[in-house]
Write a structure and sequence with these properties.
Layout (H helix, E strand, L loop, with lengths): L5 E5 L4 H12 L3 E6 L2 H13 L3 E6 L2 H4 L8 H15 L9
Parallel strand pairs: 1-2, 2-3
C-alpha cells in the first residue's frame, strides 16, 4: 500500500513518531523524518537505512526551515514538503509540490 510512496513524519525521532517511520519504511515508503531533535531524526533514518529502507532525518524547527514569517497551516506544510523534496535529492526527486 505504501510501496514507492513518500511519507513525512514530524516528530519521527522518537516514540510513536519513530514507530510510524519504521512502519512506513517497512511497508515500502521513502520517509522524511522531521523533528526538532535533528540528531535523533538522523539516527532513526540511519536505523531505517540499515534495515534496508530509504529515509533521512531533518531538523524542522522554525529556524531550520525559515518559517518564522509563515503563518501556521497550509503555507507551513507546503514549505515543509518543499524542504523535504529539496533535501532528499534523487531519492525523492519524483515528488511534486
Amino acid at each position: 500500500m505504501l510501496k514507492d510512496r513518500v511519507g513525512i513524519v514530524t516528530g519521527g525521532a522518537s516514540g510513536i513518531g519513530r514507530a510510524t517511520v519504521f512502519a512506513m519504511a517497512a511497508a515500502g515508503a521513502r520517509v522524511m523524518i522531521g523533528d526538532v531533535d535533528e540528531e535523533g531524526g538522523e539516527s532513526a533514518a540511519a536505523d531505517v537505512r540499515e534495515a534496508g529502507g530509504v529515509a533521512f532525518g531533518e531538523a524542522v524547527g522554525a529556524e531550520a526551515l525559515d518559517l518564522r514569517e509563515a503563518p501556521r497551516g497550509e503555507i507551513g506544510v507546503v514549505a515543509l514538503v518543499a524542504h523535504a523534496v529539496q533535501k532528499a535529492g534523487a531519492e525523492f526527486a519524483d515528488v511534486a509540490v
